[in-house]
Design goal:
Number of strands: 8
Strand order of the largest sheet: 3-4-5-6-7
Radius of gyration: 25 Å
Helix content: 40-55%
Shape: elongated
Order of helices and strands: HHEEEEEEEEHHH
Amino acid sequence: MKLASDPRDWQPFTFRGVAGLATGPPRRLIKVQVLAGLWVAGSLTWFLATAWWPVIDAAGGQLPNQAAIRGQRLAWEGPLPARLAENQFLAVTVDLEGNSARTSTSDLQLELVHDGIRLHSLFGHLAVPYPRGYVVQLGRMEFQPWWGARRWPLLTVISGAAFVVLLAGWQLQGACYAVWVRIFSFYADRSATVKECWRLAMAALTPSAVVLGSAVFLYGLHRLNLVGLVCAFAAQAALAWVYLLIAPFWLPHRSGAGARRRNPFRH
């Protein structure tokens, strides 16, 4: 038995809507997933274009005439230490000895040292060695044309990759969470096939993804700080479980005596 068609089945932020996406036509869920994926990927793209890319542009203009990475070592002829560019979100600095630790109040500091890149943030630091076997020219005359030709294509690739990873991740997560949906629906005396449990699990991830995309957008607007962004990331994971737990109560009743029990979540 299927739920009757209802405009509320198109509301992915309600428990009934999530259940409706699971039992309705597959194309309905696909459309909602695509829209949610576009929102998250678009928020990330907008953030990079307005928060990080201008810093990289400005840092390229402050590079010395002669600088390169050879043999996994940075050769630098400019003044040291150097703060090339920064804003609230990103700072690019150079300190060959790496003695200054964190010298910026930006949420993320990218520091070039003699043997690699150090990433500093509120949550610690990460050291990444320079690539082996490559010569990377970092002089201003070489870097600026190289970056200018790749800044927008790179943004497009990142946006497309984020969209594809989101859709693929929902498929995989949905398969993992379908087991729990099956258990919840069984004890709630609801009827759902394995495929419907899988689709409900994927639908339950949609509201949390929209929350995450909105958090990135607010972060880029200076309405949310880094700690708030991390908290939003944790909250969206918890939100998915709320939908996974409650949305099965809006699935069709199973046939039998248990089917006549009143839904405690329905008004």
